[in-house]
Amino acid sequence: MKFTKARALVLIAFSVPLAIELRTVAGFFNVELPLIAVAVIEFLFLALLFVLYGLYGEGSESPA
Amino acid sequence: MEIHTYEKVWLALSLVLIVGFIATIAYGASAGPGIDMIDDKGGTVDPATLDEHPKFGDPGIEKTGENQYDVYVVARQFVFEPGTSEPLRVPEGSTVTFHVTAADVIHGFEVVGTNANTMAIPGQVAEFTVEFDEAGEYGILCNEYCGSGHHVMEGTILVMEQSEFDSWYEQQEQQTGGEN
Amino acid sequence: MATTRSDRAFVDKFPHEAAIVKATFLVAFVALGIGAFFGLIQALHRTNVLRVIESADYYTMLTGHGVLLAIVFTIFFLCGVFHWAVARSLNRPAESRLFSWAWVGLMTTGTVLTTVAILGGLVPNLGMSADVLFTFYAPLQAHPLFYIGLAMFIVGTWLAGADWFLSYRAWRANNSGERIPLQTFMVLTTMIMWYVSTIGVAVSVVFFLIPWSLGLIESVNPLLTRTLFWYFGHPIVYFWLMPAYLMWYTVLPKLAGGRLFSDPLARVVFLLFLLLSTPVGIHHQYLDPGIAEGFKFIAMTNTMFLLLPSLLTAFTVVASMEHGARQRGGKGYVRWLGALPWRDPAFTGMALAGAMFAAGGFSGMINAGMNINYLIHNTLWVPGHFHLTVGTAVALTMMAGSYWLVPQVTGTKLYSRPIGLLQVIMWFVGMVFMSNAMHRAGLAGIPRRTAEPQYQNFEFLTPIGSIFELRVQIALGGTLLFLSVVLFLFNILLTSLGDESDRPVDAALPEPLSGPEGSPRILDNLAMWTGIAALLVILAYTLPLAGIIQNGGGLFGGGLPVPATLSAGLDFVVVTVSSAFNTLLGVIA
Fold first, then answer.
1. Does pLDDT of A61 surpass 50?
2. Which of B31, B79, C162, C383 is 20 to 30 A from residue B20's alpha carbon, by CA?
3. How many CA atoms lie within 13 A of C243 on its CB side?
4. Are C434 and C505 in a shared domain?
5. Are residues C443 and C479 in the same domain?
6. Do C502 and C553 share a domain, yes or no?
7. Within this chain, do residues C480 and C494 fall inside the same structural domain, yes or no?
8. SS3 annotation, C525-572
9. Which candidate, B146, B170, B154, B166, places its Cα nearest to that of B87?
């Protein structure tokens, strides 16, 4: 399966609500997550996505 | 008609979910917590002659029994009477029955951060009961658009210690008594 | 390519119908642009990020936003989709071109009059205003032009429905034994629901609000006109949703690379909406005095049963998508999701809209809960909810659908698929920010429809984060949504200006996996279903309306109150009968 730009975009889209609701989930366990932590986590996810895209993305040879 | 097995399972689960929702609400409304709904028990009032009404003509708080009070509130563009120009005072640990109506257009009466919330409709009286456990201050706001000054329509509820409230209440009684 | 365009494109086969669709889409998109701009101004104003208008003018913007988006954009687009669907699925043009243009003209004239009355509020010396919001609750009063325009618009939609029924009758004359084609079935059941439900608003506007705004009658009964509004105000929700459902059922499976799972269940779903959409309006009035608790309970049970068709739809849509993905080579329990055509903005937009609709459904269940509702009634939670439903499930599906439909009526290729994809994703992300923050703000008690909710005497408290963060989220979300609309309009404009194409879009719709043959013919008995729908409405509304008129000072208000007469026993009977009927319906379905 190729890692296309479109799939990357859709994954980014779905990561936003998950990131926003992360604080609620943490709240259930009495952990107060500051906004900056959420921003960092989302940023790390985006970085990971970019790395994966660089490795397996449209421009590179598909391993599958 | 042909219904696939997965569809049947889904259908059954959906029905269970729906009946479950209705059951929890019926439980909350009648048995168990017995949450008070706004309904038609407050009766009606003529909005045109509100000023001559025995209660709404001079709205405010009235003692009806041991720790029991009635509060009459009139909502009009863009104030609560009482609530806006002076706080609505109630004693701590009391059970208060609110009677809320509107003088001009439809308003809302929401005690901020609680589920004490009703519509105030001209001609109709909303009746609901609230228990005030702790002394403190609550905000009231209008949550139904009522005209160009809707966003400034607010008020406060002051939950006072019993002794403090009593002396204030007595003073009020004397004042109105003196006027008569 | 061997095939000529005439074999495929809607615009060549039905040029006159395509012209009607283009006209309705044009009005819809102009309204979308203006309405979205007003939305941006509001999002920035109420969060105190940027204030370019007076707070008193906020309500003019809000009225314009509500009317232009929730009534004009959605319903004009619906008319275009339905006109396309009837001609396509019956494979015949409309009976009379003049008649089609007549309803387009009437609806457009009504829209212009209403918009003029609303925007008149921005010109101080004009003496014209209609700052009554989308719900126009009396005794707030608008200029007569507002109500007259609204009445013309509604009559226009009635004529549009008549147009489609005439097509159906003509088709039936030549195809006596056939099942109603699925898309036409969806159009007709939706329009029957619309006829039943618009009676309420028509009575309210024609008999009470127009004479009152012209000064012919002194006063109105505020609870009566409010109840008549909600008699219409909830079914209109399904009127918005049904064109989206039509596309999810008949177009989305094809875009996903497969076909619809089950035709009969699609019919059952539309029938359930026809039956249950109207006798639920009182659930918008849980907090209204003057309506007995029993009636609210009936509305609540009906509302909960209304979850059923949407849950069935969730199943069918996901199943059809999975089928499509597997046709495209998708494997595994979850991995098939990757095989879906995410590159196609029409598909991705609809899929994202469906996902958000699920979230909107959950917050809707809270609204429907008669007692939890007290916590969030008229708070920002409510607009948070309906921006997921009408604002995304409907609006995003319509925009995504446009990427597939507009080329069929213009004969030109979509200008840019990547821009389209970016647009639908921006809408999704923007709405996540805005709607999430609105829900949270509502839980903190911040009211809806309020220009600057910063009060002098108290602060709002939120358990997680701060009110400031929520404000920033709303402003950011609103900005992304507006930019998304700009991209959409730009893409559609350049599409319509593009060169004619031999094959603008693959417009063929495959047959469903399970066709209508196996399903009972009674599903197609529209007269019977109309009768049952009317009966349910009578059951749910006669007693509350009688009570409101009797106790609230008569038809026109202002009279002396009469003591309440409804006995608890009667309530109980009505509740029992209605619940039993609902359960029965559930079982039949």
1. no
2. C383
3. 29
4. yes
5. yes
6. no
7. yes
8. CHHHHHHHHHHHHHHHHHHHHHHHHHHCCCCCCCCCCCCCCCCHHHHH
9. B154
Length of chain A: 64
Do C351 and C478 fall within a single domain?
Answer: yes
**Chain B touching partners, 3 or more CB pairs below 8 A:** C
DSSP state letter for C131: -
- Of C99, C248, C67, C109, nearest to C164 by C-alpha is C99
CB atoms within 10 A of CB A1: 14
Q: For residues C379 and C462, what is the distance between their CA atoms, to the nearest angstrom?
A: 14
Compute φ and ψ for B60, nearest 5 degrees.
Answer: 160, -160
Minimal C-alpha gap between B180 and chain C (Å): 28
Mean pLDDT across A22-41 = 86
Q: Is C231 tagged catalytic?
A: no
Residue-level pLDDT at C580? 59
Q: How far apart are CA C526 and CA C279, in angstroms?
A: 19
Between CA B176 and CA C225 the distance in angstroms is 39
Residue with structure tokens 């209508």?
C516
**Do the Cβ atoms of C140 and B116 come within 8 Å?**
no
Let me know: does C128 contact C117? Beta carbons within 8 Å: yes
- Give pLDDT < 50 ranges for chain C: 1-3, 559-573, 589
Looking at the structure, tell me whether residues C480 and C396 fall in a common domain.
yes
Q: C-chain residues within 8 Å CB-CB of B40?
A: 289-292, 547, 551, 564, 566
Helix, strand, coil share of chain C (percent; to 5): 70, 0, 25
Q: How many CB pairs under 8 A join B and C?
A: 228
Confidence of residue B4 (pLDDT cuts 50, 70, 90): confident
Burial class (CB in 10 A: 0-12, 13-18, 19+), C246: buried
Residue C188 · residue C529 · CB < 8 Å: no
Structure tokens at C478: 């609103």
Q: Cα–Cα distance between B14 and B8 in angstroms, integer? A: 10
* Owner of token pair 């958000």: C356
**Which of C178, C190, C2 is CA-nearest to residue C91?**
C178
| Per-residue pLDDT at B1 exceeds 70 | no
CA angle (B88, B91, B96) in 5-degree steps? 75
A47 part of contact set with chain C, CB < 8 Å:
no
Of the candidates A13, A23, A35, which has its C-beta nearest C352's C-beta?
A13
> What CA–CA distance (Å, rounded) separates C350 from C54?
37
Residues C124 and C147 in one domain: yes
What is the domain extent for residue C41? 14-178
Question: C191 near C83, Cβ under 8 Å?
Answer: no
Tell me, yes or no, whether C79 and C41 share the same domain. yes
Say what the pLDDT of residue C311 is. Answer: 93
Q: How many CB atoms lie within 10 A of CB C506?
A: 11
Percent of chain C whose predicted confidence (pLDDT) is above 70:
93
Give one word for C371, left, alpha or beta, with left for phi > 0 and alpha for psi -120 to 50: alpha
Residues 372-431 (C) with a CB less than 8 A from some CB of A: 418, 421-422, 425, 428-429
